Amino acid sequence: MKASEDREFNDNHQTTDRTMKNLHMVDLSAQYEKIHREIQEQIQETLTTTQFINGPKVEQFASSLATYLSCDYVIPCANGTDALQIALMAVGLQPGDEVIVPSFTYVATAEVIALLKLTPIMIDVDPQTFNVTAELIEPHITEKTKAIVPVHLFGQNCDLEPILALARRHDLWVIEDAAQSIGADYTFSDGRIMKSGTMGHIGCTSFFPSKNLGCYGDGGAIFTRDAELAQKLKMIANHGQSRRYYHEIIGVNSRLDALQAGILQVKLAHLDEYGHARYQAAQWYHQKFADNHQLITPYEAPYTNHVYHQYTLQVANGQRDGLDQYLTEKQIPHAIYYPVPLYEQNAFSPFRGLVDYLPVTDQLCKSVISLPIHTEMDEEMVSYIADAVNGYF
Ligand SMILES: *Cc1c(COP(=O)(O)O)cnc(C)c1O
Prior knowledge:
By secondary structure, the chain is an alpha/beta fold. It has 13 helices and 14 strands. Helix 2 packs across helix 9 (258-268) and helix 10 runs parallel beside helix 13. Pyridoxal-5'-phosphate (PLP) binds at residues 79-81, 105-106, 108-109, 151, 177, 179-180, 206, 208, 218, 220.
């Protein structure tokens, strides 16, 4: 199954094999079983109070998340894409300004840049971490560069300390795309630990159902430590108004609704435990693949922990498409994130000339495959999937 993000969520696909039912890329239904009482209570409260938009549930969740992240301001919004757009609107860029992003990411990261008439400079990533690094960013900084959007792909932080230093030297905004990495800790060289999305000027996340902190619809949030930016972000997300019916700047309508905030309040309390469950599943996979020299298992960098939004293998010697087809036949859920570099997408053709050939991104798009990983996996499921993968070679 080559799942798109939303098909992944709607994936009711089950294996017909009698020995191993209920394999999914994510298993939101088994997760829900365990927290359904609290969730029902939250939903019932909102239905009773009819405070559907804004109000105490949204405020309470924003405040709980700010505490969890040790970040001063959390501004909830409608989805992760909006979070990125609002962040870019808040830092006052001009049409034609350049924003550096990885070419190996979900489309939303670069889409909002183009939408705002800014110029996405889609660069290559590190072959081990799949993330951008300061070394990869630096050669692309020009007079026009105004911001960097590092993406903490698949649940692991970029090596952000050198990126922050580089940004400071060149006076650039750093807007973290933490849609896949919420809860991941980054350790600075002096030992300080900070949460993903709270280190740059602004951080953005998504509560899409299959994300590590997912609601039961769409949702997103923006993080910052800067009071002035927080004010501006809040204003932009709410039609640019400073108070009701007084509009200072052009904004958008982007809200998290109270039903989702209540659900997220419940799930936030489990976020660390969910991260550990995902990490444990990854360790089981690592063991099962330790002797398979046709596969490269995910690298775990020393400066960050990994919350395994995805468990993504690299398949050697051009065998990825064969494995893809084999797993489809065996009815083992799997997905390819991402099959096409952004700079090769038709939508981004106007920006293609701005980047050279990106060998790592290109190679990753041809060699990666992601296996099921979620909060409800046990060792037996991992073994079953890993045995099927190993059986191909
Ligand atoms: C999911 C995702 C987004 C967008 O979030 P939505 O809530 O779907 O709009 C942005 N960037 C990355 C890296 C993502 O994975």
